[in-house]
Amino acid sequence: MVHQPMIAPSILSADFARLADEAAAVTGADWLHVDVMDAHFVPNLTIGLPVVKALRGATDIPLDCHLMIEDPDRWATGYAEAGAHNVTVHVEAAKDPVRLAKDLRAAGARAGLSLKPGTPLEPHLDVLKHYDTLLVMSVEPGFGGQRFMAEVLDKVRTARRLVDTGHLRLVVEIDGGINADTIGQAAEAGVDCFVAGSAIYDAADPGAALERLRERAARAR
Ligand SMILES: O=C(CO)[C@@H](O)[C@H](O)COP(=O)(O)O
Ligand SMILES: [Fe+2]
């Protein structure tokens, strides 16, 4: 388990007209989570490569790009080349996830693999050996502000066990519905990195909200 809980604010809940300021409001963040949606893999359309490139120049926080797109085999390495620290693709969308992980690493990024809430972990364990991050979705991808699905924590517990016993080398990340009421159970289950959008950016002081989440997670471990 990484030393202290990592927090990744999701800019999906930030003010898109003031992204540089919104990044500056969370300087304590470990990663800045960027939700890329293409209106095909998910029923929502957000931002893409030009905005990621602009953000890269506007903040020093490592960018954690979560690609909810139909054809990650074609587009994902562009995000790594644009300077993203971690690029996560969905196992449900990737045609050749092992190749993709190698390409992402060759382009200088960490490679992340995400599972939708209904996607089991076990069939993908061999593929996960090639990845640096496992992103467990705790809402159906597409929108911020949804209710946390505690049933995905079984996948987190399994992944934690496999990491702690040396079978996988991964940061275990969770995404969706993380707030002061839910972060404790996710931390107990073994999450390393917590994505939080509305719980941070809907708060009057996003930086303070981030640190409160981190404290809660640390206490629950
Ligand atoms: O990937 C997604 C949604 O598809 C997330 O990253 C959300 O943006 C998280 O928002 P909250 O559930 O924390 O409000
Ligand atoms: Fe996300």
UniProtKB/TrEMBL annotation:
The keyword Chloroplast does not apply. Substrate binds at S10, H66, G142, F143, G144, G145, D175, G176, G177, G197, S198. Binds 1 divalent metal cation per subunit. Pathway: Carbohydrate degradation. A divalent metal cation binds at H33, D35, H66, D175. The keyword Lipoprotein does not apply. Its cofactor is Zn(2+); Fe(2+); Mn(2+); a divalent metal cation. HAMAP family: RPE. Catalyzes the reversible epimerization of D-ribulose 5-phosphate to D-xylulose 5-phosphate. This is Ribulose-phosphate 3-epimerase.
